[in-house]
From TrEMBL:
This is Predicted protein. One of its GO terms (cellular component) is mitochondrion. PANTHER family: CAT EYE SYNDROME CRITICAL REGION PROTEIN 5, CDP-DIACYLGLYCEROL--GLYCEROL-3-PHOSPHATE 3-PHOSPHATIDYLTRANSFERASE-RELATED. The lineage of its organism: Eukaryota, Discoba, Heterolobosea, Tetramitia, Eutetramitia. It holds the Pfam family Hydrolase_like. InterPro entries: CDP-alcohol_PTase-I, HAD-like_sf, HAD-SF_hydro_IIA, HAD-SF_hydro_IIA_CECR5, HAD_sf. SUPFAM superfamilies: HAD-like (SSF56784). GO terms for biological process: glycerophospholipid biosynthetic process.
């Protein structure tokens, strides 16, 4: 409330995702129980995949495969990926691509019928130009198989024997991930695996098969591209709030040394990192990426610096 009263632009940046920014904003407003005049807007909510909006126009007429919960398909289409297809739907269309288990939401009999209807080669018109990981996989074995097939395929069309050349393989299908977190905290007492685990699996499998390194475009904290996107969004918010002067300082306030603090330090320029002694903070300090400020909590820092 103090930030809004003082006309200071701010964002909520998270490595979470899988839903529309509008839905996440509504959820946070309900949790915080903010008065209507102080409620957050969707423009202030930056999810791990929000920066994907920047390059959606490059894939306007191209097929992209979406990995994550099924809601991610709606998110991708809202960004402008008009020919997005969810990995679940791709599997339903080509069930033989991962035949250990039938695709979800169909019966075994339907699955057997589908196998008879389709050729065992993928239609060239369904060539995939890029794979977008927008959230954690909800069917890990299938998703790793399908993604590796697309990465290894010639021009995003797996299944053609003559194209299966691991020795001189050249990666044509782009792989884009929204979150590099290997572990994350949940309601369970032990940490859970995140996209970083999937990234490790894919890189090791590709290296084992081709003796080469898999090219992955990474977004999310602590990647500089995400902080650059946030700075641009903050500048837009400042302009809309009638602030004409350039932003002199951007404070990244967070509890995660490896994402929040490291990311702000790597971004450099006007960014300043602020470590709060709450949440993930356990008393450790990263001497390679020390925070510019250490504070008991967000409220204390805001009151002292605004």
């Amino acid at each position: 409330m103090r930030l809004k009263d003082r006309n200071i632009p701010f964002l909520c940046l998270t490595n979470g995702g899988g839903v529309l920014e509008k839905a996440k904003t509504s959820q946070l407003n309900n949790i915080l129980d903010l008065p209507k005049e102080y409620q957050l807007t969707s423009e202030q909510m930056i999810l791990s995949h929000t920066p994907f909006q920047e390059f959606a126009k490059d894939y306007k007429d191209k097929n992209v495969l979406i990995v994550g919960g099924y809601d991610c398909l709606n998110v991708a289409k809202s960004y402008g990926f008009e020919n997005a297809i969810h990995v679940t739907d791709y599997h339903k269309k080509y069930p033989f691509i991962y035949s250990i288990f039938p695709p979800r939401d169909i019966t075994k009999d339907e699955y057997e019928s589908m196998k008879k209807l389709y050729n065992f080669n993928v239609d060239p018109k369904d060539a995939v130009s890029a794979v977008l990981f927008m959230y954690e996989s909800d069917h890990l074995g299938r998703d790793i198989q399908v993604v590796m097939d697309l990465v290894l395929a010639n021009n995003g069309v797996p299944g053609h024997t003559e194209d299966y050349n691991l020795v001189d393989h050249k990666q044509n299908c782009k792989l884009i991930m929204s979150n590099a977190d290997f572990l994350y905290s949940s309601s369970f007492s032990w940490p859970r695996f995140g996209q970083g685990m999937i990234k490790l699996c894919l890189k090791n499998i590709y290296r084992e098969l081709t003796q080469k390194e898999l090219n992955i475009t990474q977004y999310g904290k602590p990647e500089k591209v995400t902080y650059d996107f946030c700075q641009k969004r903050l500048e837009e918010l400042a302009k809309n709030q009638g602030i004409s002067e350039p932003l002199s300082t951007i404070y990244m306030v967070g509890d995660n040394l490896l994402s929040d603090i490291k990311g702000a330090n790597q971004a450099g320029g006007v960014w300043r990192s602020v470590l709060v002694k709450t949440g993930l903070y356990k008393g450790e300090l990263d001497h390679q990426n020390p925070a510019h400020y250490i504070t008991p909590d967000v409220f204390t820092f805001v009151m002292e610096h605004s």
